[in-house]
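During the no-cost extension, the postdoctoral fellow (Dr. R.K.) reprocessed legacy sequence entries with the updated structure-token encoder. One reprocessed record is reproduced below for audit purposes.
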Amino acid sequence: MEVADEAEGAVGPGGRRAGLRCRHPVAEMLDLPFLPFCVLLGGLGFVCVAFTSAWCQHWRGGFAWDGSAQMFNWHPVLMVTGMVVLYGAAALVYRLPPAWSGPKLPWKVLHSTLALVAFGLAVLGLVAVFRFHNHNGTPNMYSLHSWLGLATILLFSCQWLAGFSAFLLPWAPTWLRALYKPVHVFFGSTILMLSVASCMSGINEKLFFSLKNGTMEYKRLPAEAVFANTLGLLILLFGVLVLGALARPSWKRPDADSPDSCQPLLAAER
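Re-encoded structure tokens follow.
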């Protein structure tokens, strides 16, 4: 039986390979193929973005870029699209089977590009909410959601710059890249968790502010509250599935610790 996450080892006495890990039959049965999982996860990500857009269009009045409440509606759509869905996709680039062999550099470029696009969408989302607040005389940065969201964006920007400098530029020595890699991986998962938490707290905050004064109160669970709460659960499910995929040993690149994993961008053609 083929085991995807077994490491090749030297053949020892009795024909057994050193370093091979035995797996329980139940684990074999539950070891889902990665590509069908990607299709499922991609569909879930699309549903998260579609639900966010439908909520803002149907219940919150649509979209504009004029400082009105309709401009604010770009904020949740851009944040969910960038900081959750695209960021999750960037995190899973190295789990794609085509990335398991050959040079790692093209996948590093794809990973950093997806993360950069996610960051650009997040910045536009911040512009939308700050412009809405300033246009309407609303104070900025007074809620836990705003503190958590801005901290996530700042941490993300530091993560991207540090990763680009360490893994795609030639001046970082190999030992430093090897030392920083587990830190980069840890903060990558942390940023995804913070992004999910920011989105869920933002949905809850928006419902508290909106479902009052002429509309059915949030505590009475009108249709909008049910829809938005469901959206929050879908975002949470997406984040959990991404973190689960990152933690599954059999979906990791087999040569993740090879020297090529530390190959800088400008040294690729040498």
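Confidence is low (pLDDT under 50) at residues 1-22, 24-29, 256-262, 266-270. The two ends are 40 Å apart (CA to CA). The remaining legacy entries will be reprocessed before the final report is submitted.
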